[in-house]
Amino acid sequence: MNTLWRRIRRNVIQGKETAKVDLKRELHLANKPEKTEFAKDVMAIANTPGGVGYLIYGVLDVDQRPTAKIEDFVVGVDANESSDSMLIRMVDALDYFCDPPPAIDYEIVVEPTTQRALGVVVVGR
Protein backbone atom coordinates (compact mmCIF):
# COMPACT_ATOMS: atom_id res chain seq x y z
CA MET A 1 0.00 0.00 0.00
CA ASN A 2 1.28 3.45 -0.94
CA THR A 3 2.73 5.38 2.02
CA LEU A 4 0.96 8.60 1.07
CA TRP A 5 -2.35 6.75 0.74
CA ARG A 6 -1.90 5.41 4.29
CA ARG A 7 -1.45 8.98 5.54
CA ILE A 8 -4.57 10.38 3.85
CA ARG A 9 -6.80 7.28 3.87
CA ARG A 10 -8.79 8.14 7.00
CA ASN A 11 -9.55 11.66 5.78
CA VAL A 12 -10.70 10.40 2.37
CA ILE A 13 -12.87 7.59 3.73
CA GLN A 14 -14.43 9.65 6.54
CA GLY A 15 -14.64 12.88 4.53
CA LYS A 16 -12.91 14.55 7.42
CA GLU A 17 -11.22 17.90 6.89
CA THR A 18 -8.86 19.38 9.46
CA ALA A 19 -6.69 22.48 9.66
CA LYS A 20 -3.99 20.49 7.84
CA VAL A 21 -6.19 18.51 5.41
CA ASP A 22 -8.56 19.99 2.82
CA LEU A 23 -10.73 17.87 0.52
CA LYS A 24 -11.73 19.19 -2.90
CA ARG A 25 -13.74 17.82 -5.78
CA GLU A 26 -11.59 19.43 -8.48
CA LEU A 27 -8.54 21.56 -9.07
CA HIS A 28 -8.77 24.41 -11.54
CA LEU A 29 -5.89 26.78 -12.29
CA ALA A 30 -7.13 28.31 -15.54
CA ASN A 31 -7.70 31.87 -14.37
CA LYS A 32 -6.69 34.36 -11.71
CA PRO A 33 -9.59 33.69 -9.27
CA GLU A 34 -8.90 29.94 -9.38
CA LYS A 35 -5.18 30.47 -8.83
CA THR A 36 -5.97 32.88 -5.99
CA GLU A 37 -8.19 30.30 -4.29
CA PHE A 38 -5.51 27.62 -4.67
CA ALA A 39 -2.83 29.90 -3.19
CA LYS A 40 -5.12 30.83 -0.31
CA ASP A 41 -5.81 27.16 0.50
CA VAL A 42 -2.12 26.25 0.38
CA MET A 43 -1.09 29.22 2.53
CA ALA A 44 -3.71 28.37 5.15
CA ILE A 45 -2.30 24.86 5.48
CA ALA A 46 1.34 26.01 5.33
CA ASN A 47 0.81 28.57 8.10
CA THR A 48 -1.01 26.18 10.44
CA PRO A 49 1.25 24.61 13.07
CA GLY A 50 1.65 20.87 12.98
CA GLY A 51 3.91 19.80 10.16
CA VAL A 52 2.94 18.58 6.71
CA GLY A 53 -0.56 19.15 5.33
CA TYR A 54 -2.54 17.92 2.35
CA LEU A 55 -4.90 19.28 -0.29
CA ILE A 56 -6.64 16.21 -1.68
CA TYR A 57 -8.43 16.54 -5.02
CA GLY A 58 -10.97 14.14 -6.46
CA VAL A 59 -12.96 13.49 -3.29
CA LEU A 60 -16.06 15.01 -1.72
CA ASP A 61 -16.09 16.07 1.90
CA VAL A 62 -18.68 14.56 4.22
CA ASP A 63 -21.21 17.41 3.70
CA GLN A 64 -21.28 16.89 -0.09
CA ARG A 65 -21.61 13.11 -0.17
CA PRO A 66 -24.83 11.81 -1.72
CA THR A 67 -24.34 8.34 -0.15
CA ALA A 68 -21.81 6.50 1.98
CA LYS A 69 -20.71 4.37 -1.01
CA ILE A 70 -17.08 5.02 -1.81
CA GLU A 71 -17.76 5.16 -5.55
CA ASP A 72 -20.12 8.09 -4.92
CA PHE A 73 -17.64 10.27 -3.06
CA VAL A 74 -14.28 9.35 -4.62
CA VAL A 75 -14.81 11.07 -7.97
CA GLY A 76 -11.17 11.06 -9.05
CA VAL A 77 -9.06 13.45 -11.11
CA ASP A 78 -7.68 13.31 -14.64
CA ALA A 79 -4.66 11.04 -14.29
CA ASN A 80 -3.64 11.74 -17.89
CA GLU A 81 -2.19 15.15 -17.02
CA SER A 82 1.34 14.59 -15.79
CA SER A 83 2.20 15.31 -12.19
CA ASP A 84 5.13 17.43 -13.37
CA SER A 85 3.01 19.75 -15.53
CA MET A 86 0.43 20.07 -12.76
CA LEU A 87 3.14 20.88 -10.22
CA ILE A 88 4.58 23.56 -12.52
CA ARG A 89 1.16 25.22 -12.80
CA MET A 90 0.73 25.12 -9.02
CA VAL A 91 4.19 26.52 -8.33
CA ASP A 92 3.58 29.32 -10.86
CA ALA A 93 0.39 30.28 -9.03
CA LEU A 94 2.13 30.24 -5.66
CA ASP A 95 5.09 32.25 -6.98
CA TYR A 96 2.68 34.90 -8.24
CA PHE A 97 0.61 35.23 -5.04
CA CYS A 98 2.98 34.29 -2.20
CA ASP A 99 6.22 35.79 -0.93
CA PRO A 100 7.89 33.52 -0.09
CA PRO A 101 5.98 30.69 -1.75
CA PRO A 102 5.48 27.59 0.40
CA ALA A 103 7.18 24.33 -0.52
CA ILE A 104 4.78 21.86 -2.13
CA ASP A 105 4.87 18.56 -3.94
CA TYR A 106 2.16 16.93 -6.05
CA GLU A 107 1.42 13.24 -6.35
CA ILE A 108 -1.23 11.07 -7.91
CA VAL A 109 -2.51 8.38 -5.54
CA VAL A 110 -4.86 5.61 -6.63
CA GLU A 111 -7.70 4.86 -4.23
CA PRO A 112 -7.61 1.04 -4.00
CA THR A 113 -11.34 0.24 -4.01
CA THR A 114 -12.45 2.39 -6.95
CA GLN A 115 -9.06 2.56 -8.69
CA ARG A 116 -9.72 6.28 -9.20
CA ALA A 117 -6.82 8.71 -9.13
CA LEU A 118 -6.63 11.36 -6.43
CA GLY A 119 -4.41 14.40 -6.73
CA VAL A 120 -2.55 15.18 -3.51
CA VAL A 121 -0.73 18.44 -2.88
CA VAL A 122 1.71 17.87 -0.06
CA VAL A 123 2.20 21.19 1.73
CA GLY A 124 5.29 21.78 3.83
CA ARG A 125 5.15 24.04 6.89
Characterize the structure shown:
The protein has helices at 3-14, 32-46, 70-73, 83-97, and strands at 21-24, 53-57, 104-110, 117-123. By secondary structure, it is α+β, with helices and mostly antiparallel strands. Strands 1-2-4-3 form a four-stranded mixed sheet, with helices on both faces. Strand 3 and strand 4 (117-123) form a beta hairpin. Helix 2 (32-46) crosses helix 4. It is globular, with a radius of gyration of 14 Å.
What would the keywords be for this entry?
125 residues, alpha+beta, four-stranded mixed sheet, globular, 37% helix, single chain, 4 helices
- Element order: H for helix, E for strand: HEHEHHEE
- What is the CA–CA distance across the termini? 26 Å
Overall residue-averaged pLDDT value: 93
Physical arrangement of strands within the biggest beta sheet: 1-2-4-3
Low-pLDDT stretches are none
Largest sheet: 4 strands, mixed
The helicity comes to 25-40%
**If you compute it from the alpha carbons, what radius of gyration comes out, rounded to the nearest whole angstrom?**
14 Å
Beta content? 15-25%
Structural class: alpha+beta
Number of DSSP strand runs: 4
How many DSSP helices? 4
Overall shape: globular
